[in-house]
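Hey, quick one: can you model this chain's 3D structure?
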Amino acid sequence: MQRISVFLKKYNQVLLGILLAVLSSESFAEKINIAAAADLKFAMDEIVTQFKKANPADDVEVIYGSSGKIFTQIQNQAPYDLYFSADISYPEKLEAAGLTAGPTKPYAFGRIVLWSPKTQLDATQLRLEDLTRAEIKRIAIANPKHAPYGKRAEEALRSKKLWDSVEPKLVYGENIAQTAQFVHTGNAQVGIIALSLALSDALSKQGNYWLIPDTLHSPLKQGFVITKRAEANQAAKKFSNYMASTEARKIMVRYGFTLPDEAGQ
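Sure thing. Here's the predicted structure for all 265 residues.
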C-alpha cells in the first residue's frame, strides 16, 4: 500500500506539473487579428512569418481587403486588433472617434503601376495615354469608392485628361489584389495595380510594369493603428513595435514601399 501511495503521489505531482505548464503557456500566448489593405498581402505575410519565429507563442491571423471596407467594419465593431490601411486618413478617423488604443502610425508610401502579363502586352513600353488604344479593351483598377489604390488610379487618369475616354473600358476590383487577379487571369489586358504586388514572385515572373509618376496623384501615405478592443493585448503592441524593426523594414522596402522617414515626410 505504501508503494501505491508513493506512486500516486508522484503521479499527481507529474500531472500537476503538466497542468501548470499548459496553463502557463496559455497565459502568455495571445492572438492577434490583423486587418490589412490588400497591397500588403505579400509583404505582410513575410513579416508575420518573421514575427512568429521571434514570438512562437503568439497566434497571428491576417485578413486582406480594401481599406475603406475594413474601416466600415471596424466602425461596426469587427473583431480586429490591428488595422493597416493604404490610406492613413482611415485610421486617423478611427482615432478621432475614440476607436483606437493609441495614435495612428505611418508605415509606408505606396506606388501605382501599369501591369500586364507578358502574353498580353509589354507594360514597360506603355504609358497612360496608350490605354486609349482601340486594341486595349479592358483595363482593371480597384474600386475608387473604397480602395485607395483605385482612387489614385482615377486621379492619375484625370490628371492626364484620360478618364472620360478610358472609363468605358474599366473593370473594377473590390480591392487591389482582386484587381491584379483580373489582369493575371486575362479578364483585363492591363491594370493599374500596386507596385508591391507587381514585385511579388507571383506576378513578376509572368508580367512587367511601368511605374506611374507620383506627381499625377495624391500621395499613398499609409498608416496603422491598434484598435480599442486590443488595448490590453500585449501581442498586438509587440507586433506594432515589430513594424519598426530592421527585419520588417527590409521586407517593406523589398516590395517597393518607401518608408516614412526615407520619404522626407
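One thing worth noting: The beta strands are 31-37, 59-65, 82-85, 105-110, 112-117, 139-142, 170-173, 190-194, 207-211, 220-226.
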